[in-house]
């Protein structure tokens, strides 16, 4: 499972932080950070979801009010949102 995070879309509500420990508050920027993610050329942050953390990643994606977080299964199919 892979998670993609569009930091530019984030509005700093931080609901994802409450759902998954891989998201942390960046109070200076007013946005969440996806810890350990790699930034792609288009500015999206990508991280392979560690085994056993799929549910937490899914919840983080589901609670994002601006759909800045997208989840993909192992076949590359979008699962959330």
From TrEMBL:
The record lists the organism as Halalkalicoccus paucihalophilus
Tell me the protein's name: Ferredoxin
What InterPro entries would the database entry show? Fe-S_cluster_ET
The reply to whether Transferase figures as a keyword in the UniProt entry is no
Cited Pfam families: Fer4_15
The question of whether Electron transport is a record keyword is answered with: yes
One GO molecular-function annotation for this sequence? iron-sulfur cluster binding
- Look up the domain of life of the source: Archaea
Q: Which UniProt keywords apply?
A: Electron transport, Iron, Iron-sulfur, Metal-binding, Transport
């Amino acid at each position: 499972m892979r998670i993609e995070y569009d930091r530019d879309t984030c509005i700093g509500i931080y609901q994802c932080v409450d759902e998954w420990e891989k998201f942390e508050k960046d109070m200076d920027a007013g946005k969440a950070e996806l810890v350990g993610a790699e930034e792609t050329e288009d500015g999206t942050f990508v991280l392979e979801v560690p085994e056993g953390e799929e549910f937490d990643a899914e919840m983080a994606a589901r609670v994002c009010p601006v759909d800045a977080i997208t989840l993909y299964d192992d076949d590359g199919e979008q699962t959330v949102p």
